[in-house]
Amino acid sequence: MTSLPSQDVLLHAMQDIVGANGCLVADADTESFVTDYRRIYRGKSPLVVMPSSTEQVSRVMAWCYAHDVPVVPQGGNTSLMGGAVPDDSGTAVVVSLKKMNRVLDVDTVNDTMTVEAGVTLSAARATADENGRLFPLRIGSEGSCQIGGNLSTNAGGTAVLRYGNMRDLVLGIEVVLPDGRVFSSLKGLRKDNTGYDLKHLFVGAEGTLGIITGAVLKLMPQPRATAVAFVAVQSPAAAVQLLGQARALSGGAVTAFELISAPALDLVLEYLGNAPSPLPARHDWMVLIELTSGADEDSLNATLMEILETGLGNGWVVDAAVASSLADIQQFWRIREEISDAQTRTGGSIKCDISVPVSRIAQFIEKASADVLALEPATRMVIYGHMGDGNVHFNPLRPRDRDAKSFLAQWYKPVSDLVDGLAHAENGSISAEHGIGVAKRDDLRQYKSQVELELMWQVKRALDPKNLLNPGRVLPQIDGAAAS
Amino acid sequence: MTSLPSQDVLLHAMQDIVGANGCLVADADTESFVTDYRRIYRGKSPLVVMPSSTEQVSRVMAWCYAHDVPVVPQGGNTSLMGGAVPDDSGTAVVVSLKKMNRVLDVDTVNDTMTVEAGVTLSAARATADENGRLFPLRIGSEGSCQIGGNLSTNAGGTAVLRYGNMRDLVLGIEVVLPDGRVFSSLKGLRKDNTGYDLKHLFVGAEGTLGIITGAVLKLMPQPRATAVAFVAVQSPAAAVQLLGQARALSGGAVTAFELISAPALDLVLEYLGNAPSPLPARHDWMVLIELTSGADEDSLNATLMEILETGLGNGWVVDAAVASSLADIQQFWRIREEISDAQTRTGGSIKCDISVPVSRIAQFIEKASADVLALEPATRMVIYGHMGDGNVHFNPLRPRDRDAKSFLAQWYKPVSDLVDGLAHAENGSISAEHGIGVAKRDDLRQYKSQVELELMWQVKRALDPKNLLNPGRVLPQIDGAAAS
Predict the structure, then answer these.
(1) HSE-up of A315 (CA within 13 Å, CB side)?
(2) Is A429 in Cβ contact with B192 (below 8 Å)?
(3) pLDDT confidence of residue B38
(4) Burial class (CB in 10 A: 0-12, 13-18, 19+), B412
(5) What percentage of residues in chain B have a pLDDT greater than 70?
(6) pLDDT range class, residue A1, cuts 50, 70, 90
(7) Could you tell me whether strands A317-322 and A380-386 are parallel, antiparallel, or unpaired per DSSP bridges?
(8) CA nearest A360: which of B135, B221, B188?
């Protein structure tokens, strides 16, 4: 291995490519690029480079490859897993895509939009909207997160039940490879069986195989009608029954089916200044159901009522508030969406982002809750999320009278190990939508088979033989000849 | 390279693993495994091996890997591209999955079904149906083709517009790697972001990276209502407008939108014994539209009528027959589905399976038709297929008075080159759903970038360093250091 170039040599080389305005060196300027937004992961970097074209990214990568300089790609830096910030070795250049924020094309006949990787999710959604279309990805960080990061982490959110994950919303991709070669396939095709579908290698790879610089995204028809209800259910098992009924009766109109536990609702209502609950009484479990369709409002509301009446008749539904205005819809959704911030503000939350088959979710919640409460009985069981995908955010919260730091110091590891283990035992996932980054990297040794880890390394070494791209992220070190 | 084992050694080793009943040696027995079903590709093989478990597949592969014996995986042997039969070197063992035909699990709450790779598509569809669910893949060869082959070729068909390709219908996969290791990930999760999503490597790889032995497939709610119309449209451009309107008005209920040209209709009606057309007059262009939904029949029919009336009002629709019974629906679909057999029976068909962005399909058809007719004016322009996906089967057919053999000898290559070139120029695909196999392998040199071909080889070499799995398929030989 050659020795790394000096800071001066590196800076000059990068300035030659991206210009002086494209390089940040001073600590004050780089601080926000080397620290994750929850301020848990803080790394070091000699330089933040902000290319403004694919060609510049290619030249940056080629130079770094030739000089053995590690590179950390960064979008909106909203990873919850430390996947987008450098480690503290101080060797890795951060390549930020923020200047590549142009929408290149909108094709309303093909229902596609071509964007650079640095376009924020909210800008992509706004562009779709301006063109009378829907770009359906819906996650809390949409104002900051970028399409390249959404792709690299295969982002999920609250509309996956209807529209799929980010992987399902992309048709074509452009990627700069570790050695600077550009794989450009910005095609807007629904069908293309001409060899390996390489884009799927880079989607969800968290920037370890290449830097995504552009994408062709799918657009959807805008729904003509939306119907939303805030529903108290008898139990998580009843919620699953209701979900099945809703899917059967609505023919695919269920866009969201979000579970909310009583402690989650208590927390968020308090956070929202003691906002009123949509329902008069307190219930242990609720779901937020959203139907959308191209049909008229009346017909969709009738379907929603049919679902709720079936639920009441079967004893699954205890009470329900149906949104009667856009303001109601926004208020119901605000309650759901602010749970995350309410937790952050409160502190002392053990975040487990698990998924299991939908058929196992109720018993998973029951067992995991009982086990956590057996450890620490006053824990607030903040459980919420995308039940329709088998994915809940299972986030035990410190007791009211316990300080966050001591609670996390005592319980973070044992509780998350317990929850992850139970999810794994149900043939589930220990990271449904948040990814691996550095936070869960070493857990993979426990939850992935040796063969799967070997395969990941075989792919990594084939594409990034020098291990320069986002090193130390996603892939745990393993033994075994095939990976050496 | 070691020399290949003798036929005797090979046979004994395989019999040790799969038993005498699992091996076919006599030419009469192996004939149907070494010849593709259109009898265009005829190869040789010393042995057809039919394992009955993943463990047997693993042992077969480990032995062949250790002894440098090439392996050709085979499902229902319905490839149109010669992708499932061995070459004529006589060195490759055919591994048929036909004995692995068990449905392992159906989970109607999770809406998934776990199957072995040798389950036929029609058996998978029937199993879903028996459980009150829909498995939506719909292709002509469903009685013969197998789930493993559907996955390996990322099969498409007539319901992709609504439900996606086979890639979109699989959640988990089990694969035996070239060296016999088993990558087993038979999980039924909608969300799982724990490292590289390796299943996408094997889907669409046409058996060149591993042998798929099992899969977890998505199930859908059965539609409660179906509405179908056979519609004469003013032109392909008018059909595209109608499609956009149908998608906007129906909120995702458009399940199929199939274009049919007049020569395609003439051909199939004649093939069906001069069956009557659904429409009284002859028209240049027609579309078969199918809507399905969970809503009631009346509401869906009203939506269909709204679409057709909008189409009439805008001059896109010239005439329409709306199916008023299940018999009508079946008859309309029979016309569409028998076009393929009608061509085979007639002979002299130049099959081009192209896709372009939906916004380019009308002008593609116009230009390609004009160019073909300029070469041979009496050619029958049989054009049909999945317009909603931008995918048409563009299959110029010999003039009535011309024999098939001389027509194909003169025109197959120039016409398919012309059509593929025009599709490529529209940022399209030269193989939308049929794959590459050996038939289009060398065309990839022309239509893929050097970087993309290098990446394919990097992946191939990482997973199959000895190039033993389905050798000579999909990947063309290329120059360049990165691929060597």
Answers:
(1) 1
(2) yes
(3) 83
(4) middle
(5) 99
(6) very low
(7) unpaired
(8) B188
